[in-house]
């Protein structure tokens, strides 16, 4: 499956996000690895979240295009597919072996 290259930059990384309510607090976010692990955050709202997401994770991923063949409504046309271009941002895509579950 093809995913936008912007997404692959956010894989397998530890990222720190400052707390809104207390700037002294930083949360460590694991960005996940495609198809293997999902993004996690150490904040309380993540712990209690039913859909395994919190505003910190959203904030990080909202900055990226994040297009993926498997989970995005926008589909590539045949030209984009051949040229490996992202239908959302027009950037390059990369082929990844794993599917998100
Ligand atoms: Zn969080
Ligand atoms: Zn894109």
Structure description:
There is one protein chain. Helices cover 23% and strands 18% of the residues. The protein has 101 residues and is of the alpha+beta class. Strand 2 (14-18) and strand 3 form a beta hairpin. It is elongated and about 50 Å long. The two termini are 13 Å apart. The site of one zinc ion (ZN) has 8 residues, from loops.
N to C succession of SSEs = EHEEEHHHE
Strand portion: 15-25%
The beta-strand count equals 5
Structural class: alpha+beta
How many helix segments?
A: 4
Estimate the mean pLDDT confidence: 91
Main sheet attributes: strand count, strand direction, barrel closure: 3 strands, antiparallel
Q: Provide the list of bound ligands, each named once.
A: zinc ion
What is the share of helical residues?
A: 10-25%
Could you write a compact summary of the structure shown?
This protein is 23% helix and 18% strand. The chain is an alpha+beta fold. One zinc ion binds next to helix 2.
Which helices and strands, and how do they pair?
Blueprint: E1 2-4, H1 5-8, E2 14-18, E3 26-30, E4 40-41, H2 44-48, H3 55-62, H4 78-83, E5 93-95
Antiparallel strand pairs: 1-5, 2-3, 3-4
The protein binds zinc ion (ZN) (2 copies).
The site of one zinc ion has 8 residues, from loops.
């Amino acid at each position: 499956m093809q995913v936008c290259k912007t997404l692959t930059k956010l894989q397998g990384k530890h990222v720190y996000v400052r707390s809104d309510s207390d700037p002294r607090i930083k949360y460590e976010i694991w960005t996940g690895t495609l198809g293997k692990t999902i993004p996690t955050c150490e904040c309380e709202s993540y712990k209690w979240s039913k859909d395994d997401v919190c505003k910190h994770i959203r904030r990080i991923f909202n900055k990226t295009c994040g297009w993926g063949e498997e989970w995005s409504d926008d589909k590539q046309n045949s030209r984009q597919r051949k040229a490996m271009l992202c239908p959302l941002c027009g950037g390059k895509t990369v082929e990844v072996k794993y599917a998100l579950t």
